[in-house]
Write a structure and sequence with these properties.
The structure is a homotetramer of 110-residue chains. With 110 residues, the first copy, chain A, is mainly alpha-helical. Chain A has four helices and no strands.
Amino acid sequence: MNTANQYQDCIDACNACAVACNTCFAQCLQETDVQMMARCIALDADCAAICTLAANAMARNSEMAKHFCRLCSEVCLACAHECEQHHHAHCQACAKACKKCAQACLDMLN
Amino acid sequence: MNTANQYQDCIDACNACAVACNTCFAQCLQETDVQMMARCIALDADCAAICTLAANAMARNSEMAKHFCRLCSEVCLACAHECEQHHHAHCQACAKACKKCAQACLDMLN
Amino acid sequence: MNTANQYQDCIDACNACAVACNTCFAQCLQETDVQMMARCIALDADCAAICTLAANAMARNSEMAKHFCRLCSEVCLACAHECEQHHHAHCQACAKACKKCAQACLDMLN
Amino acid sequence: MNTANQYQDCIDACNACAVACNTCFAQCLQETDVQMMARCIALDADCAAICTLAANAMARNSEMAKHFCRLCSEVCLACAHECEQHHHAHCQACAKACKKCAQACLDMLN
């Protein structure tokens, strides 16, 4: 019985993206210009949620895994686009993790 | 400030569907023919997960809510199709909740 | 086969609390004094997460359900205490839903 | 602005445990003796859920993180105890990941 998972790279990218989004979320809330960060915070929450769901579904070898990853890639790109517009280090780190995860999801579809 | 949510009907359908899927999951595990129920159990887990995510996103008025609900409707229909093939009361109840939730998600998109 | 759930009242309270927390989260992000709402937003996210987990576990008749509900009651009370300090209608509504959910969780333990 | 997380080791252990639990869940459903695995499957679902919640909360630097990790360690130990009783490689791998995660959560509390 093989306990390794065919989707391990994408699972790792989703988990790393969820950490980056949650970190960005928490640090945005500590910024002095938090009102400017409202959309970033909201997208961080969305992106962490779908990354987490996708990682869990891939680990279960779900027949729906590709559907979840397709949507995950879309939410990651939306979050990356918003984060890129802010100079904060946590936003830049989050944008990078989101783009990496979006690509891992697209790779997994093929 | 209005604390009501424009998506309340769809949130309620998603939460009811998650309960039905989780109930079906637990009761499938108690069946004597549990091997026959493996795909039902797996889809119950997928469907409960996306219903829960969609309900939370709608309650946050997420800009991604429609994307989540579109996928939720697809997973609900897959789960309903599997559940309908089993005579257990919990499967029939789950199929019904899944179809109602799929429709609520489609209605919410328009 | 009985498809009803012994924990239905507590499941309903958890789902209602998750909606109230997510609503408060989204509306806090739209306030002009959002920096003042940072702890409220963070606790809303924690509380929605544990309410959702507890509701799903109860619906699965999980042997861990009481453990999840004990912690859920504690997080609900922390969130209620923070929300009560803000005059916004969504905060007051959230505090009320949190206290109701905390009580439902304590009732479920006995 | 430091984007690293003080809880990174525990986050990694929680994510690895969630993967192991979800893998065990899926592979238990494929076993011929799936009825014997019912409690293992149920605990896998509980454990993956609380590991995921704890990882997300730690990444948000949640003030509730220690509460979530204390419960996570308890659920991990219950899941490990069940998995250890089965000879399947996925159960043994899951038991090991659960015990490692339980220890990481206890370490994080201190």
